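Shall we go through a protein fold together, starting from nothing but its sequence? Please make up or recall a protein chain and show it to me in full. Go ahead whenever you are ready, and we will take it from there.
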Amino acid sequence: MFEELIHLIEKHPTYSSAMRNAVARNLPLVLNYHTHQGEGTYCVSICTKMGFPVPFFEETDDNLEELVHVRGFGKDREQCLPLLTGLSAELRKHFKLPATPEFYLDGKPLSDV
């Protein structure tokens, strides 16, 4: 499942270049598992953290820039951790990431939810 998703990202005209650019710049990645109002399934966004290299204000830490958006990624909130863990492992392997992406749920760090 995750290998096929990465294959689709690599073929996408925008997502592929956004991911390659972020990886080349060694930007920290975030996997944001989220819903949209009125939709019954969960999506996942692969994001980078925006902001200043040294944050001046606390609220700049969690601004996310979306690189990839995948609809219909999960069915419910309980699937968040298992799905993000699997996707994260496959992203690290494929893109040779130096660190595991952070996990977010509905735009907030999973540890804060």
In short: The chain has three helices and five strands. The helical segments are 2-11, 15-24, 80-95. Strands lie at 29-34, 42-49, 64-74, 102-105, 108-109. Residues 52-61 have pLDDT under 50 and may be disordered.
